[in-house]
Amino acid sequence: MPAANEVSKDDIVMLNGAPHKVLELQHRKMARQGATVAMKFKNLTSGSTVTRSFNASERLEDADVEKRPFLFLYEHRGEYCFVPSHNRSQRVLLSREDIGEEKAKFLKPNTEVIAEVFDEKILAIELPIKVEYEVREAPPSIKGDTAAGGTKQVKLETGAVIATPLFINAGDVVRVNTVKGEYVERVEKGK
Fold it and tell me: In the chain, at which residue ranges do the beta strands (DSSP E only) sit?
């Protein structure tokens, strides 16, 4: 059980019998008073957020959340199918709301993800930081445009739209940072 001043961002603790992820925290020291820590939490079961203050020495209960590898198989009518990496026969279906809009748009079949599991229920998934995608649609580049270093919007194989340099064309493979949703680099074909 960590003290409130030992907790850091993205830690998962138990509050009111439910796991909560620390979104923000701020240490405060006021004259003649003990130090306090103000924290903003996200309830991982309901999705709501709450802000609370604790004395620096107050103990918080660790949540028993496991991180397990899962494989994303497919999406059908807003449901996303995952299987544990060690047991391909046990399928888990999650909705787009469970996954989150930003993560769902970067999921492609056969992508290995890390799932946060609490009481055998998936609370959240983490995508690999960098993933390669094929560009499906890209407006044509005009010779001479690339000198200024501009960008254009392209559509990836998952349907996500990102900004890329002007030299990217349909059929190219690009590496994307899934956390920021940004273009990283073009991948040479055959690698």
Answer: 12-15, 18-29, 35-43, 49-55, 61-62, 66-76, 79-84, 92-95, 111-118, 121-126, 130-137, 151-156, 161-165, 173-177, 182-187
Both tokens of residue 20? 């909560």
Q: Residue 51 has which token pair?
A: 């802000």
| Measured distance CA(92)–CA(116) in Å, rounded | 13
Q: Are 71 and 122 in contact (CB under 8 A)?
A: no
Q: Among candidates 186, 180, 191, 176, which has minimal Cα distance to 111?
A: 176
Which of 43, 178, 47 minimizes the C-alpha distance to 114? Answer: 178
Distance CA(160)–CA(93), nearest Å, equals 21
Tens of pLDDT, residue by residue over 9-20, are 888 889 888 898
Both tokens of 190, joined, read 């055959």
First to last CA, the chain: 47
CA contacts within 13 A on the Cβ side of 12:
16
pLDDT digits (tens, 9 = 90+) for 147-165: 566 889 999 999 999 999 8
Cβ neighbourhood burial of 154 (10 Å; 0-12, 13-18, 19+): buried
Buried b (16+ CB within 10 A) or exposed e, 19-57: bbbbeebeeeeeeeeeebbebbbbbbeeeeeeeeebeee
Enter the DSSP assignment of 128: -
